[in-house]
Amino acid sequence: MFATDMSIAQAICASLEAEGDRFRDGDICVVAQKIVSKVEGRTRDLAAFEASEKAHELARATGRDASMMQAILDESAEILRRTPAAVIAVHRTGHVLANAGIDASNVEGGQEGRVLLWPVDPDASARALRAELQKRSQVRIGVVIADSMGRAWRIGTLGTAIGCAGLTVLEDRRGRAQDLYGRTLQATVIGIADSVAAMAALAMGEGAEGTPVALVRGCERWVTEEDGPGAIGGLRPMEQDMFR
Q1: Are residues 134 and 183 in the same domain?
Q2: Domain boundary pick from 82, 117, 152
Q3: Has residue 66 got a pLDDT over 70?
Q4: CB of 225 within 8 A of CB of 26?
């Protein structure tokens, strides 16, 4: 378990040492968003949100709690869809997801109205964690902060990178690679950071597994010297968005 006054990097390194392991050059450390949010003090009581008229209107339209609607509004740049199941929002960071990432699962007091918000700046959180991990380990590490998100074309959630440092976010193979028959690739852009987050999410689990961190090895070709643009670099530009 992580305490709110705990260094995530310290806890990760201590856990590795307890297993007789250590970071190797090119490792990728994937950390669940909830742990980062908890350590950064992003837990809130819904009762503290004073619902605006817009929040009450959303509550009437969805049949949901007005305080929760206000929390979503506070964390959002835009509301795209509203249904009883979820409010689809553009988060302040630009990510599009259900309920602006606000969640009560695996939150102490969640049944009494306590919720957890995303980190204020997940990419900045990833950069800070990477700096501390590299200082402690003296090797090159990539860091991903992951959360479970739905996808427009598919059923089910998938581990997704919401914060990233030291990892190639997108590998653009257009015009630079060929298929088995010598045809130059025209549309292939691989979501490296999201793929790593999805792999790690299978190991970390979604419920009571209590595994908030996963270590990914074998992907060192995508680990970079610089922090890079962060997960925000993988967001589709508005002019290419087919759903807005």
Answers
A1: yes
A2: 117
A3: yes
A4: no
Cα–Cα distance list, 235 to 44, 108, 174, 193 (Å): 27, 31, 18, 12
Does some domain include residue 24? yes
Terminal alpha carbon distance of the chain: 40
Average pLDDT rounded to a whole number, residues 196-216: 91
Residues for the chain: how many in total?
A: 244
**pLDDT tier at 93, thresholds 50, 70, 90:** very high
> What residues make up the domain containing 51?
43-117
Whether residue 1 has pLDDT greater than 50: no
Look at residue 127 and tell me whether its pLDDT is greater than 60. yes
- Residue identified by tokens 């990728």 is 28
What pLDDT does residue 242 have?
A: 79
Residue 95, domain CATH: 3.90.1660.10
Query: Is 234 a domain residue?
Result: no
| pLDDT computed for residue 41 by the predictor | 94
Q: Count the neighbouring beta carbons within 10 Å of the beta carbon of residue 116.
A: 20
Domain membership of residue 244 (yes or no) is no
pTM above 0.85, yes or no: yes
Residue whose entry in the numeric block shows the structure tokens 């992907």: 219
- 235 in a structural domain: no
